[in-house]
Amino acid sequence: MSKAAVKISSDLLSNPLCEQDPQFLKSMTALDTAMRRMDAFNQEKVNQIQKTVIEPLKKFSSVFPSLNMAVKRREQTLQDYKRLQSKVEKYEEKEKTGPTMVKLHQAREELRPVREDFEAKNKQLLEEMPKFYHSRIDYFQPSFEALIRAQVAYFTEMHKIFGELTEQIDQPGLTDEQRERDNEARLSELKALSIVADD
Amino acid sequence: MEPIYCTVLPGSPDELGVPPEADKTKHKQSLAIEELLSTERGYLNMIQLCAVDIRNRLKQKQLPDFDLEGLFANIDDVIDVSSKLLYQLELMDTENPQYLQALSDTFLSMRSELENTYKEYCASYSNILILEARYREREELDKAIQETITSTAPHTNATNLSFFLVMPVQRIARYQLLLQTILKNTEPSHPAYRSLQATVDSTVALNSNINEYKRLKEVADKYNKPENLTLMDKIYRINTHSIAKKTARLSQMLKHEAGFLPKTEDKEFDALEEYFLALERGVADLQDNVSTFVKHFEEFLSRRPHECELDIETEVAFRNYKELSAILHKHIYPKYMHRLKSLVLQPLCSLQELFACPQNMIRKRLHKLLDFEKIEEKRRETGSITYEEQEAANTYQAINTLLLTEMPKFNGMATQLLIRAMETFIFIQRDFAADVNHIASGYLQHLPHNKLPDYTFWSWAEGMFLKEAKSLQQISQTFEAELNPHFILPLTPSSQRRLSELTKRYKSEQIYQASSDIKGGRDMDLSLSRGELVAVIQEMDTKGDKRRWLVEAGGNRGYVPASRINPYHPTGQTASPSPAIVDEASKRHSVVVVSPAIESPVLPSLQVFAAYDFSARSIHEVSLRAGELVTVLEHHDRQGNPQWTLVEVQGQKGYVPSNYLMVVPVPGISASSRKT
């Protein structure tokens, strides 16, 4: 957007009209300078925002893949846990014969570590996730401040620069309707010329 | 005042001593003046009738497809001028000796008004005629018109509008005749004679200007519209005449380019053309660029991050930001866009459209110039040219004149518009900046760190984020930590044997168990099955990769992924602490590394079963069937080897491998499993 603005002034500056009319050249040079300065400020604003908003955002979201992986692993563990749990229950329901007892015992042995693992993972997630979610508030607070501040800084400059430019132009005090009517009047004058067809 | 003429007898001098001839002239002069005035009155009446009454009636009828404005052109202006003229002429009494002077002065002072108004009207008159003819072809329109005329002006016996509409055209020419009559009948010695003469001359000039203008306008209208012809149309236009014409032009042009003929240079025109083209380029570029700018801005507007739900309404900076953005988007940005579009983009677009026709005319001029050159050549050589040729020459000159007179005006006015567009852009920008600033500064006041100067603020913000980056990284690591349990998988006999082999040669810390099946992919990789025991020889491979460990498994050596093997702690040996391999994760999370806790041996409230089938291979051994209840007699063999247990089963005594036995808690008593 800023680049488009610079193009506005630079194209006009390069137009041969500038050679013909020194006043035109002067005005266009002033405008071009202004546009380029605004572009520089814009760049600065972008940099600031890059550092205080975009990159922090990226870093914050980079935690999510790990988080998702942990969730997935918990899920897997849960599956294992359920599987083994149902196996134990199955054996518990069967008749208490020797082999069954043995198998039951084995199954319980298998189950226990898995259960503990699951519970560990679960606990961890339950603790860490809310903390992480909560931390975003304080984390991002500077970002929002930065956004507002950057706006203020940029537009202050813009106001100053364009304010200087407008001082060099006469008639700054017209209202918008007056300007519109003025434009219409000039256009009609042009249309009244014979070489311009009237439609 | 006594009438001048009643006492005069033909041949006798009157009281003033003026000869009778003079009287006659004077009389004629007065008559002429009266005629001027009375005809003007009549004329004014008529056109007022037409313009006001008839037009209103027609307007009321609301006829479809009826161009009232085109039909009546600028007749209102004509009426104004005529009324003014009449008013001036009637100010003074016609008998007044000063009257002639006043008359001349009036005409001279109103000269330009007259010229401009009538010029327009006359130039539009042909269009009026065309329109009228077209409308009369349509029956219902024709009838409506007739009806209106007869109802409003029955005394005129008029049957069509042009009866009225032609009057201004006739009138302006009439002035000349009327004034000439007055002049004819005025003594050269009359004090006002010179003025009157000047007036007549000016009227003559006026009429010729009007005619010239009309002609030029006709030429302009003919040539200024760029024609959008299809290919078919162009083909239809080809006939011998047009081919001849174009060939002639082409040859002329080639002669120019080749240097045979000198090009007619018209520096003045060329300068104008050059400026025109530069201007056109400037306007086109500006219009393009501003449009692009507007487009980008609109795209920017379509993103509305402040509208997303972030669930942190309580936080002050966020709230401020959200409100600020909302206001900007709702009020300030649209206002800016609107101003930009209506005050800069719109006029630029309109301006750009206006360039097309003059450009076309310039092109046509060039063509006609080529024709003209040929004709002039012919005229020089033969001394005579045909009628068409003369016409063509006239056309060229008409176009040329027209362009030379009007282009400077066009260039000037268009440049003005261009400059004004840029100026408007500038203060729209300034106002926009002021608006945003005003609101944003307001919100800035609410922010916690608003008192900090800019530089300090940015360093603080960046510092905060760098710090946070570290803790974020830590959090990531938290989640990434492998929380693999180090649980023990029950050993199969083969594993048991493996274990004994390995423990002979390696320390117990080096014994690991595969937590899942491992398929070796590369050469030197080992394949393991779940639960298999290995001994770790080196905790990295030859390239230093710590994820591949060199292990031994039953005489084979190879690499396996470190993540798939876990330290093996058979219970009953030691309540060993977590092996050093366990990462910080476990330190952080008090995860119980699942080494089954050791409890003191439990006495016979446990029952011992055979876990697997076992076939005795010697007389000292006894066979077992899985699930059989056994009684343990001794926990070691005669040599004290704890790997053999003396049991009694089914009345038989003998040794069985210790790990084939299982201690099962009898329901009601909890105890950890224990391998004996």
UniProtKB/TrEMBL annotation, chain A:
Subcellular localization(s) per the UniProt record: Cytoplasm, Cytoskeleton
InterPro entries for this protein: AH/BAR_dom_sf (IPR027267), BAR_dom (IPR004148), BIN3/RVS161-like (IPR046982)
Keyword Coiled coil belongs to the record: yes
The organism's place on the tree of life at top rank: Eukaryota
Domain called BAR: residue spans: 1-178
Coarse class of the protein's main subcellular location: cytoplasm
Ranges in a coiled coil: 67-94
Keywords for this protein: Coiled coil, Cytoplasm, Cytoskeleton
Protein name per the record: BIN3 protein
Species name: Polypterus senegalus
TrEMBL record, chain B:
Name of the protein this chain belongs to: ARH37 factor
PROSITE patterns: BAR (PS51021), DH_2 (PS50010), SH3 (PS50002)
Keywords: Guanine-nucleotide releasing factor, SH3 domain
Domain BAR: 254-456
All residue ranges annotated as the DH domain in the record: 28-213
Annotated TM spans: none
GO molecular function list: guanyl-nucleotide exchange factor activity
Gene Ontology annotations for the cellular component aspect, listed alphabetically: cytoplasm
